[in-house]
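> example.struct
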């Protein structure tokens, strides 16, 4: 898929190349990466288009073709839905952030995590594996900028505000905001998203880090085309939508899990 980001390549041919049926490959891909193949491909193409807008002088029409669109207008409409601004404005602003990154190989599990795992404070030595897992979960965080995130992570580790959910592998990650009053970032491996992973991580956080306290965070607003399902999972866990906000110029919504609310299964 990475070698054919800029050219049409039927999914049936991918399946044939991998010696799977299209149905089986689609299921395995979605389970491993967290999003269906067609959605992953669209988001990867748009990410690379956004990168070219900021870091190259390629004409907009050429970028549109490389992203798989037959016209500049179709590309601009799709870009606006995912990035909430026109390609021209995105280029003028000069601020790149990805929607979907290519996953790193160490996190391609074949059989999933083993055991329940436990929560522990993160250390600076955890940063490489933490960043690899963060790369898999950026679809849940608008305006994720790697350099700024890495610096904030290092500070959170030094301040004892960063936590790792660990079994045989790193299963999940979480950081508190500097004020310690809400979750600045949390994620689990995509293979755990629909296996109760977020519920388990949230339960561990409430037992050890946020006892008898409300859990607050921000997420996508309702109807955001860039949301791959994170808002729905928060609602399922029992989070309540609160006021609309803007973070780094992106429209988001504050969500709260009340202190007396049991985490929904």
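> example.seq
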């Amino acid at each position: 898929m990475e070698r054919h980001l800029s050219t049409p390549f039927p999914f049936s041919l991918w399946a044939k190349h991998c010696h799977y049926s299209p149905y089986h490959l689609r299921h395995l891909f979605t389970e491993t990466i967290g999003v269906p193949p067609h959605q992953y491909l669209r988001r990867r193409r748009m990410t690379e288009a956004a990168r070219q807008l900021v870091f190259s002088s390629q004409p907009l029409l050429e970028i549109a073709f490389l992203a798989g669109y037959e016209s500049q207008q179709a590309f601009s409409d799709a870009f606006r839905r995912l990035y909430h601004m026109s390609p021209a404005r995105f280029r003028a602003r000069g601020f790149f952030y990805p929607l979907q990154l290519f996953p790193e190989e160490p996190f391609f599990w074949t059989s999933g995590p083993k055991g329940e795992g436990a929560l522990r404070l993160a250390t600076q030595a955890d940063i490489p594996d933490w960043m690899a897992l963060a790369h898999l979960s950026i679809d849940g965080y608008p305006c994720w900028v790697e350099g700024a995130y890495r610096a904030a992570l290092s500070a959170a580790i030094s301040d004892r505000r960063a936590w790792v959910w660990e079994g045989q592998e790193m299963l999940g990650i979480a950081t508190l905001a500097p004020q310690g009053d809400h979750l600045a970032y949390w994620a689990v491996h995509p293979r755990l998203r629909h296996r109760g992973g977020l519920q388990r991580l949230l339960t561990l956080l409430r037992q050890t880090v946020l006892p008898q306290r409300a859990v607050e965070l921000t997420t996508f607003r309702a109807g955001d085309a860039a949301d791959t399902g994170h808002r729905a999972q928060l609602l399922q866990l029992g989070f309540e939508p609160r006021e609309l906000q803007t973070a780094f110029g992106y429209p988001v919504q504050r969500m709260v899990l009340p202190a007396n609310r049991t985490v929904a299964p």
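> remarks
The mean pLDDT is 89.
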